[in-house]
């Protein structure tokens, strides 16, 4: 619905108010013609009503439609204009129909702008240049120059021809068009093709961008789906002014776009059209130059010629073969498609379309070859004053216009051509086509008289000269107050009065006058480095003119005369002036004079200097390039001295000059002149001692000191920063090696870690600055470790700049305050235990639990606050109970306390927690009818919390009942039903504890010799009569069906590091250790790497692995294998660590060949096996658990079946023959892991006495080889023991060789 705004329409006259109300009522009754434009969602309504322009404005402004404010329609694009004509304006009326549109030239009848809507004030047409800025479908002779015809309306004649013209303000038109929408939305001003910004007005309300929000303009070219940056782009509005004016940065472009405006809260869209092309002047085709040449601007930015279309004449004939003229982007040439009359007006209008934006130039100046001048014809009526106003404001390039003179036959031919042109082009017109001729009668006493010679030219280059008529009919006799008018239809002159008469056309001529400097006797200025200078000239020719600009003194490097615009010159590097410039066009020298002057030098900066003198650097402009031309004088209290010739540092802008020593600090004057010029530039030179004005410290791992001041650079002497009260008193200094940079005014340097708080100064040679104070903030690198809950421990503060005295020796201390809820706060002093460069201070901490607040205070100035923890509880051992039962669980670890203690196993709370000491606690676990179980063999998580500090470790297993098969010797062993192994009494060994060990007293059946680790990781066990090779031979990944996925032979590993591991021999377990070694290696071309820890036990002891107690026999070897970086092919795959035990099938023992035999426990998951070869027994046992990703799992150990492919592969690698080798492959299976797995097998030997005196040499002693690999995430334990049965034995040589397959590092 359309309705009024409710404001008063008027109060000046009841009649006017009543009339407007009637019009509004009529308006509301006739809104069915409203149409919505899809590209901006605006509504347009045509109203047939005989009203004036101002009344139409008032009605539209007082109306709304659908809540949208109205205004007289503004046409800003061809697309909008076609929509209004096709959808809104009445069709096929059969009569002339007119309607008011928004637009007027009320301030200057030649400059047309919008009066309404968001575009109010936008210029859309300039008559002086015949230039359109939006869309301007003027009729051929419009806008005319008649007085008051300066309000815009559209005319549709006989329902067939739509165009614009102007009418007076009070003219009663037959209708008007209102537009609704966009009044309070941003309006975009059309940009030139070369512009990189779009100006936007009306940026108000919800479209105003802010710090936290933006207003974005998104452009999409119409008519294409191509989304390249030239067709689709965006920009953000910059913050505008109080009047809603803003800008948006773009890449130069052209064409028609759909633009979406996205504000912080509102979004709208509209059509945006870049400015149409502009035609400045043309060269019609001639016999010698058959091309139509068009000079102008706004022809696009790197536009494809396929996007440009040129037509000519009213019949819109195409102009073919379009191309650029030379390298000018302002000149187009083409070949007209048909031959027209020689006269240029037959070409008009020249219609250029670039990227769908069109302009038809009708008043463009054209070149007339017979006269070699340009002419323009404004075919619209105007009185003489308005005609002269147009002439005086119109220029072709930089050439002034004047009323056309009929001073020769060629000019008369042009007049007759105009006659023919208008008769041919518009034969229906019968009114005389007459235009002003600038000729008036002579003034009184000026020789009057009749005849053509009595008229005088009154304007232009022949002003005051007598006229000559080339018309067959002589002009009328002159009469005072009259002026000539030429009738183009009959070729005759008539007269009219000089003022108050309108309706005559304007014929203009450009040129025929000498070139001239626009500002006579003025001066242009150049830098001494040379400048590109645009010159202000008039009548300076056209595209094909020969223009010369020169100087007798200075050789100009370049001159540029563009087709459209002002000429420019490039001056060479030089100095001085003024130098006379000359300027000529086509051989005609310009009138007036113009001078070139090089700018005088200026001084913008001069560096300070110490009283010792030295070089100063002078910075400024226009110093030229030759330092010998510079005269530099120094004025001091002792007088003036001319300094020696300096050195040019940067041509034109910077030079250096040597200054002598001074008697004191202060200010003196330096003056500089160039080339003996009287123009002198002066400045003050500051003579100083080193002085510090500002101190800045950038703290961090490598702290920096930045000093600002003066006098830090004297000659080539680097400054030195001294900490202390002067030379010889300091606690460190910054020398040249620590300087990052320095200049006269700034020093940047690293601060040495020996530096302390207090005084410092800067020394430059013999000069020293004043003492300044530096405050160095300590850089705390670490505070820890966590203190013990039982007390008696300290935390260590490590950092920089924590000295206990300043530069003068004054004590500085570091204090620590401890506070915790529930206990009284206390403070302690920290003790320095290590000085610079890395300070360490120890601060004692009392017993406690949980977290506490610690505040470090240094030098009573710097405060650092931390929240620290006492040591977290740790879990080392967890006992087991039977499943589905209630039992007491014992936990061994550290940092246990009764404050806030709780235990959780799995998801079940362990009650009745009793803390006996900081390393031992018990609790009762009720697992009856619970869901607790060791799923997939994984240990349950055990969570211990002490005063808010929590530790969780997967360590709890329910008891698993295993039989010892074969059974244990009941007298010397007991079956351990948790492991399925026999626990032997001291002195007994073997799988069933029935074998007595000889401990050196001659008793017992067997001996166990200690291994010795060799230089390359070899381990030897002395013995004779046996031949074992034991090794971790393969790592193999298998899937759920136990099918191999990837296999790595251990023979491929490269060992890269060997080291001895420390152990504390004072502990019970460590006292049984003879040695510990570590080997590290990796696989080539694979991610897997290995760590192997070998421990030799000199006597029987109990160790713990994964919480499981394991008895290590005397002289046994434990291997802890860690496997890193194994990349699994699937998440359900597992890893097998496969050990091989190899010996001969037959071994000579007591002069007989004996078959090798094998025995293992009878459980599904074996825990031990033994191989019997002659008088030796190789015993291997495996931990019941493995550690995977720091979680405990039940181990799974099996003997590989004899058909496994690894048996054959092993034979090939070991070069063993099937008929004499006895092989056993045992696999420890590790579940899929992400980080690490640890396995821990143990091996040993039991060697019988051997009285092998048979003299046989068939026993070849082979070395048992243990090669161990672990992956990130897996660990296991294996123990090897070799038992030797004694009976008249003779130790011959090495019997067991545990070898690392050592290779050189890659």
Automatic annotation (TrEMBL):
Start and end residues of each C-type lectin domain: 39-165
CDD domains per UniProt: EGF_Lam (cd00055), IPT_PCSR (cd00603)
One Pfam family it belongs to: TIG
Sorted UniProt keywords: Disulfide bond, EGF-like domain, Membrane, Signal, Transmembrane, Transmembrane helix
Domain of life of the native organism: Eukaryota
InterPro entries cross-referenced by the UniProt entry: C-type_lectin-like, C-type_lectin-like/link_sf, ComC_SSD, CTDL_fold, EGF, Ig-like_fold, Ig_E-set, IPT_dom
Protein name as annotated: EGF-like domain-containing protein
Species name: Cavenderia fasciculata
Lineage start: Eukaryota, Amoebozoa, Evosea, Eumycetozoa, Dictyostelia
């Amino acid at each position: 619905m359309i309705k009024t705004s409710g404001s008063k329409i008027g109060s000046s006259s009841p009649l006017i108010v009543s009339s407007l109300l009637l019009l509004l009522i009529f308006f509301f009754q006739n809104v069915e013609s409203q149409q919505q434009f899809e590209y901006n969602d605006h509504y347009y309504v045509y109203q047939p009503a005989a009203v004036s322009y101002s009344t139409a404005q008032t009605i539209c402004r007082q109306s709304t439609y659908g809540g949208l404010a109205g205004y007289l329609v503004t046409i800003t694009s061809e697309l909008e204009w076609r929509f209004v004509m096709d959808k809104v304006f009445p069709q096929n009326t059969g009569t002339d129909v007119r309607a008011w549109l928004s637009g007027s030239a009320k301030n200057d009848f030649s400059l047309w702008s919008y009066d309404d809507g968001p575009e109010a004030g936008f210029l859309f047409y300039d008559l002086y240049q015949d230039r359109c800025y939006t869309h301007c479908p003027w009729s051929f002779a419009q806008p005319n120059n008649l007085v008051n015809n300066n309000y815009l309306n559209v005319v549709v004649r006989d329902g067939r021809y739509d165009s614009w013209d102007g009418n007076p303000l009070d003219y009663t038109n037959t209708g008007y068009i209102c537009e609704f929408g966009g009044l309070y939305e941003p309006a975009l001003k059309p940009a030139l093709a070369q512009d990189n910004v779009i100006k936007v007005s009306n940026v108000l309300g919800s479209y105003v961008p802010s710090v936290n929000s933006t207003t974005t303009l998104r452009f999409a070219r119409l008519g294409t789906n191509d989304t390249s940056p030239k067709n689709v782009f965006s920009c953000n509005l910059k913050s505008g002014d109080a009047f809603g004016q803003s800008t948006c940065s773009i890449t130069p472009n052209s064409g028609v776009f759909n633009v979406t405006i996205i504000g912080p809260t509102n979004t709208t869209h509209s059509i945006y059209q870049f400015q149409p092309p502009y035609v400045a002047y043309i060269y019609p085709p001639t016999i010698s130059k058959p091309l139509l040449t068009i000079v102008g601007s706004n022809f696009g930015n790197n536009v494809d010629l396929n996007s440009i279309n040129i037509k000519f004449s009213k019949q819109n004939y195409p102009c073919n073969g379009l191309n650029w003229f030379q390298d000018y982007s302002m000149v187009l040439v083409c070949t007209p498609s048909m031959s027209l009359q020689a006269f240029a007006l037959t070409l008009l209008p020249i219609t250029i379309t670039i990227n769908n934006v069109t302009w038809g130039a009708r008043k463009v100046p054209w070149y007339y070859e017979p006269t070699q001048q340009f002419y323009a014809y404004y075919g619209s009526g105007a009185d003489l004053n308005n005609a002269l106003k147009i002439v005086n404001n119109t220029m072709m390039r930089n050439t002034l216009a004047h009323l056309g003179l009929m001073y020769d036959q060629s000019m008369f031919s042009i007049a007759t051509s105009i006659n023919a042109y208008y008769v041919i082009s518009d034969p229906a017109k019968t009114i005389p086509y007459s235009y002003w001729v600038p000729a008036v009668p002579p003034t009184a006493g000026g020789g009057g008289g009749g005849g053509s010679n009595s008229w005088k030219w009154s304007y232009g280059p022949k002003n005051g000269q007598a006229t000559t008529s080339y018309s067959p009919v002589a002009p009328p006799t002159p009469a005072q107050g009259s002026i000539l008018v030429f009738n183009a239809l009959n070729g005759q002159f008539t007269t009219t009065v000089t003022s108050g008469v309108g309706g005559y056309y304007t014929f203009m001529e450009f040129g025929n006058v000498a070139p001239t400097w626009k500002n006579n006797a003025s001066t242009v200025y150049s830098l001494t480095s040379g400048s590109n200078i645009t010159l202000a000239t008039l009548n300076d020719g056209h595209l094909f003119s020969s223009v010369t600009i020169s100087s007798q003194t200075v050789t100009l490097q370049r001159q540029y005369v563009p087709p459209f615009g002002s000429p420019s010159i490039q001056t060479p590097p030089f100095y001085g002036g003024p130098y006379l410039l000359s300027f000529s066009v086509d051989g005609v020298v310009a009138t007036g004079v113009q001078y070139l002057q090089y700018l005088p030098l200026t001084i913008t900066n001069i560096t300070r200097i110490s009283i010792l003198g030295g070089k100063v650097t002078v910075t400024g402009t226009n110093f030229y390039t030759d330092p010998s031309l510079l005269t530099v004088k120094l004025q001091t209290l002792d007088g003036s001295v001319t300094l020696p010739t300096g050195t040019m540092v940067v041509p034109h802008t910077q030079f250096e000059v040597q200054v002598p020593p001074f008697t004191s600090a202060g200010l003196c004057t330096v003056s500089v002149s160039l080339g003996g010029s009287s123009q002198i530039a002066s400045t003050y030179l500051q003579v100083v001692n080193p002085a510090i004005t500002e101190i800045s410290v950038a703290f961090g791992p490598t702290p920096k000191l930045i000093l600002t001041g003066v006098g830090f650079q004297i000659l080539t002497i680097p400054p030195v920063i001294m900490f202390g009260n002067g030379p010889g008193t300091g606690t460190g200094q910054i020398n040249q090696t620590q300087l990052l940079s320095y200049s006269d005014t700034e020093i940047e340097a690293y601060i040495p870690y020996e530096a302390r708080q207090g005084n410092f100064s800067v020394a430059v040679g013999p000069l020293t600055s004043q003492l300044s104070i530096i405050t160095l903030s300590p850089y705390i690198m670490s505070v820890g470790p966590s203190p013990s809950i039982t007390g008696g421990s300290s935390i260590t503060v490590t950092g920089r700049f924590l000295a206990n005295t300043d530069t003068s020796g004054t004590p500085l201390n570091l204090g620590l305050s401890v506070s915790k809820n529930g206990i009284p706060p206390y403070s302690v002093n920290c003790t320095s235990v290590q000085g610079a460069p890395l300070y360490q201070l120890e601060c004692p901490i009392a017993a406690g639990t949980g977290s506490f607040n610690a505040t470090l205070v240094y030098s009573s100035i710097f405060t650092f606050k931390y929240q620290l923890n006492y040591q977290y509880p740790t879990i080392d051992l967890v006992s087991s109970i039977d499943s589905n039962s209630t039992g007491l669980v014992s936990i061994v670890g550290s940092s246990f306390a009764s404050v806030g203690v709780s235990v959780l196993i799995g998801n079940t709370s362990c009650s009745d927690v009793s803390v006996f000491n900081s390393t031992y606690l018990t609790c009762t676990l009720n697992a009856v009818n619970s869901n607790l179980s060791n799923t997939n063999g994984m240990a349950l998580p055990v969570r211990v919390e002490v005063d808010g500090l929590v530790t969780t470790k997967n360590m709890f297993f329910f008891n698993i009942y295993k039989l010892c098969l074969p059974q244990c010797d009941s007298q010397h062993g007991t079956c351990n039903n948790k492991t399925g192994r026999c626990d032997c009494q001291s002195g007994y060994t073997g799988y069933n504890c029935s074998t007595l060990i000889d401990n050196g007293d001659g008793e017992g059946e067997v001996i166990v010799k200690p291994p010795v680790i060799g230089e390359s990781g070899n381990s030897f066990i002395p013995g004779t009569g046996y031949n074992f090779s034991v090794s971790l031979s393969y790592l193999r990944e298998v899937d759920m069906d136990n099918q191999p996925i990837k296999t790595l032979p251990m023979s491929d590993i490269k060992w890269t590091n060997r080291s001895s591991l420390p152990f504390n021999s004072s502990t019970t377990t460590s006292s049984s250790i003879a040695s510990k070694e570590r080997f590290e290696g990796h696989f080539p071309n694979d991610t897997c790497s290995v760590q192997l820890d070998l421990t030799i036990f000199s006597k029987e002891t109990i160790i713990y692995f994964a919480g499981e107690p394991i008895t290590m026999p005397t002289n046994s070897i434990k291997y802890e294998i860690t496997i890193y970086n194994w990349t699994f092919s699937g998440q359900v795959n597992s890893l097998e660590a496969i050990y091989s035990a190899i010996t001969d099938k037959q071994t000579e023992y007591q002069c007989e060949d004996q078959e090798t035999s094998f025995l293992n426990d009878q459980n599904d998951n074996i825990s031990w096996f033994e191989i019997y070869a002659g008088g030796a027994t190789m015993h291997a046992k495996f931990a019941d658990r493995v550690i995977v990703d720091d979680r405990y799992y039940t181990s799974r150990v099996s003997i590989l079946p004899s058909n496994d492919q690894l048996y054959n592969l092993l034979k090939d690698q070991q070069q063993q023959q099937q008929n004499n080798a006895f092989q056993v492959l045992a696999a420890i299976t590790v579940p899929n892991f992400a980080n690490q797995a640890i396995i821990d097998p143990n091996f040993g030997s039991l060697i019988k006495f051997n009285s092998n005196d048979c003299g046989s040499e068939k026993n070849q002693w082979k070395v048992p080889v243990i090669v161990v690999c672990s992956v990130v995430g897996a660990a296991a334990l294996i123990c090897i023991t070799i038992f030797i049965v004694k009976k008249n034995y003779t130790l011959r040589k090495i019997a067991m060789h545990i070898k690392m397959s050592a290779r050189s590092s890659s």
